[in-house]
Design a protein that fits this description.
It is a multi-pass membrane protein. This protein has 196 residues and is an all-alpha fold. It has helices at 17-36, 40-61, 65-83, 89-92, 118-135, 147-171.
């Protein structure tokens, strides 16, 4: 290989202007993501606002139903991954390769670890909405379909998928929504002191 053959390098061995531009753009983007991490409610409000704008756009344009259906399926897959444990207890039932969720009352408590963390769920959902919004600017994605069939099919798919997920949650006794750390109560203080 010669001196300028590697990716992002110019003839003189320095990174090219285009490579430096996109590298800097990626750093700025990552910086904004890092700054937004603690603001969970604000992030989701912005995403819901984008979703609302997208729905209004699709309603006013009266088209792009296939794109909307694909976005719905994508969000459903993200939501199922968000509700699922990182290590599937049904796969761990036969083997003792690693930790599993407790199935009996007297077993040790292990925290629920998601397959898809909340931040990645939010980030993927927001990118999906923005991508779908961009698709509405191109007539090629406006495939004519009878939209009520898509709505009925999506509702059926949602109900079947959620029923299966809820059965899985009941069978392996895990709840994906916990609020904070467990609090244990000690014995009540009776006010007597020990004197020696």
């Amino acid at each position: 290989m010669s001196e300028g053959d590697s990716i992002g390098e110019s003839v003189h061995g320095k990174p090219s202007v285009v490579y430096r531009f996109f590298s800097r753009l990626g750093q700025i983007y990552q910086s904004w993501l890092d700054k937004s991490t603690p603001y969970t409610a604000v992030r989701w409000i912005v995403t819901l606002g984008l979703s609302f704008i997208y729905m209004i756009r699709v309603y006013l344009l009266q088209g792009w139903y296939i794109v909307t259906y694909a976005l719905g399926i994508y969000h459903l897959n993200l939501f199922i991954a968000f509700l699922s444990p990182k290590v599937d207890p049904s796969l761990m039932e036969d083997s003792d390769d690693g930790p599993s969720l407790p199935t009996r009352q007297n077993e040790e408590f292990r925290p629920f670890i998601r397959r898809l963390p909340e931040f990645k769920f939010w980030h993927s959902a927001t990118k999906g909405i923005l991508f779908a919004m961009a698709c509405t600017f191109f007539e090629a994605f406006n495939v004519p379909v009878f939209w009520p069939i898509l709505v009925m099919y999506f509702i059926m798919l949602f109900c079947i998928t959620m029923k299966r997920q809820i059965k899985h949650m009941i069978k392996y006794r895990y709840i994906p929504f916990t609020h904070g750390k467990r609090k244990y109560k000690g014995k009540e203080d009776v006010g007597k002191t020990f004197a020696s």
